[in-house]
Write a structure and sequence with these properties.
The complex is a heterodimer of chains A (444) and B (411).
Chain A lengths: L2 H4 L2 E5 L4 H19 L9 E5 L3 H21 L1 H7 L9 H13 L2 E4 L10 E4 L5 H14 L5 E4 L6 H8 L5 E6 L8 E6 L5 H13 L3 E5 L7 H19 L5 H15 L6 H8 L1 H11 L11 H8 L17 E4 L2 E7 L4 E4 L4 H8 L9 H6 L3 H14 L3 H22 L6 H11 L12
Parallel strand pairs in A: 1-2, 1-4, 2-3, 4-5, 5-6, 7-8
Antiparallel strand pairs in A: 6-7, 9-10, 10-11
Chain B lengths: L4 E8 L19 H15 L8 E5 L3 H4 L9 H4 L8 E4 L5 H15 L4 E9 L5 H8 L15 H17 L1 H19 L15 H5 L22 E10 H7 L7 E10 L13 H14 L6 E6 L4 H10 L8 H6 L16 H4 L7 H13 L16 E8 L4 E9 L2
Classes of the chains: A alpha/beta (444), B alpha/beta (411).
Amino acid sequence: MDYDNKLERVAVMGAAGKMGSGILLLTSIEMADLSLKPENRGRTFTIQAIDVSDEALSGLMKYLRAQVLRIAEKKMVWLRLMYADRADLVDNGQIIQQYVFDVLNVVRPTIRIEAAYDCHIIFEAIKEDPDLKKKIFRKIDGVNPHKPWYLTNTSSIPISELDRDAGLDGRIIGFHFYNPPAVQKLVELICAKNTAPLLQAFALEYAERLGKLVVRSNDKAGFIGNGHFMRDALHGISEAERLTAEVPLYEAVWMINKVSQDYLVRPMGIFQLIDYVGLDVVNYIMQVMNPHFPGEEIHSPMLRSYLELEIRGGQNSDGSQKDGILRYEKGRPVGVYDLASQQYIAAEHFRESCEARLGPLPKSFQPWKQVVASKMKDEFFASLFQELKTMDTAGARLALKYACRSKEIGQQLVANGIARTDEDVNTVLLTGFFHTLGPINNYV
Amino acid sequence: MEKKIYMTAGYNTISLGTGRKEFNPGKPRPGIEHYIKEAGSQVLSKIGGPDAVDETVIGNFMACRFNSQAHLGAFAPYIDEGLSGKPSTRVEGACASGGLALLTGIKSVLSGSAEVVLALGVEVQNSVKAIYGADILAAAGWAAERKTGHAFFFPGQFSDRAGVYFERFGRERTRKSFARWYRNAIENARLCLTAQEYHNTVADLETLAMTEPNGKSFVDYLNLFDCSKVSDGASAIAIVSREGLRRIGIPVEEAVEITGFGHAVNNITVKPADPTELSTARLAAEKALKMAGISIGQVGTVETHDCFTIAGILGVEALGLAKKGEGPDYVLAGETSRKGEVPFNTTGGLIGWGHPTGATGVHMAVTIMEQLTGKAGDTQINIRPSKPFGLSLNMGGDDKTLVSIVYRRGE
């Protein structure tokens, strides 16, 4: 297999989406960089950026231009070498502008799926809907004469199922970027039963060129990342529901969100994370996973109640957080949606009573931002958990129970053969979810 | 000199840029006119207002590109309407523009065409990101060499010098002396309210400064701590005759006397014959010392042009304080620290105080004036009677335009 040849004609399905735009950015840069290699002069590299709306594609090109500029400014030493033979490009500024053009010049935005019919590599980053994905794969594969390779960004659908139902003969691999792809280093790599070895080799080389950290997951619905996240979320939801014996649901949601963020030192609480990913996406993923784990009940009526009221979360095109279960101002939660009265209740009405109920934070508490940069994490968590175990407060009890459940979920992923090792589970949570502590640890 | 020349009433704005708490790259900042006005009007207020001034000289390197602003001479009346109708000139010699502003003022006073000159240096460089600023600053070299030059052009030039120095005189010891130079610079800057590194709180500066250089993202032989930062700032000072001192009502002991100066240039199209030497710097300093009639041993404090740590070390050697290849030993022995034999860059120099390029030469003069007249506040060093002189060495480009000045307290 020739890596450069394969990347000569590429398509990204769902290119204007949250994940697709990042995949497009990274891949178009990789392709432009290949085109700058002396041996590739004269070759034309193209990436079809396919999505359903011209408006979204127009926004995509603006995003792309801004991001490529930012990236170009950081690789100036290399760019000067690449453009050394261009006598007309003297200043850094001139070279950067040329590079931005050269990257954008690889990209062909289009709303026509036909653009994928002549490509060798198809990145798929559309909605997490198994039937839609299979339909698209079948449609392309039926007319594409090149027997293309498919790299799907699904975060939950078994690759073997996609392979079988779309009739791809092993020309598909799960290449699951984390959000946002341009920033997150983690990629979950998932092979179907008969994924072609050459495709695997290509995927590994591509990941390495992009500087990604690869964790292989076995081909079971949800893989490692969502395998943990969905179950972790369901634990948070059931804990909140349990607390409704004492407080209204919106207060319970606030409390569990706080415990899962502050006590467990995560970048955001579990309900904020659900909002970040989008309630509809979470619901889709649960629908995909549930039939594969009979008896586990991976679904949430509470989540569906929000969705029925059009409470969805997710992000605006500028990356800012939309209101979901929580309400946000400048990215920070400031209220919670009350299903009963169908409106947001401002946190100022209940924050103090919730905090009184949880009790004071552990004395050794440090905010996530501080811990994530700390070189003394072991010492920190040793004293944090020591303290939690001796504290007689609701907050500490909820936190310990939460951490135990998270560990149990992680261990189950290994026991069920989804993750190869404890280490792989921890790597996914530490790098893909920015946790400060892997779920499988000795403190719990 | 036939006529005694003095400098007094100096003033520095803060050096604004990364490191200062008030610096926020995402927010609007004061423009170049603000800096000119602040520095100029502060000096005017110390010398009795604009009526005392015969002429203004503004040193600036690249406002035409950093700020799309040329014709800076005509900003003098913006400092104070009272400067309208009087002569005002902008002078340029890359990073020695400030030094040239001083020399221009000195010569005006020497010629008798002025008794009081307001000399000012200014640069506002945070208007563009450093990667584009590198293009602008590269114009201090020969434009024909830009294409083959480094992305970070001047760090590249001095990195090359450092590379040859490492090879010839040893890498480890030299890098340690760079780290010590950095530490001295930051420790001095922490004493000076206007310094860009005033807020620096790093505990172990030398370990930080020993970070391995990374040629893939920057240059091969220098790291970021070896470099002065991108700065916005202005400095101003009054250059006056004896008659001028009387006019502005400042006692002579609150001024410094200029006892010598040296100005030398070298061909901008020619690469240095020996990269481990600043030969033009040596020449300018020798001229200044000769004119003052003193030896380097009588100099009690130096402000040298440490745009990079290697330039600091080479400056020590160019001044004759250490033999070739022995600058690192001199620095590592503590001789350039504020308690050493010859305290260098007592408010942090270019690395610690900041390097608003066109202002730097004037900033050096203000610092030495404050030290020699006992007005340096927390940064004050002890000036021994046996070493009453101060010396500044201001460099434009890669050892191409050099201005050196010798000062002593007025009496």
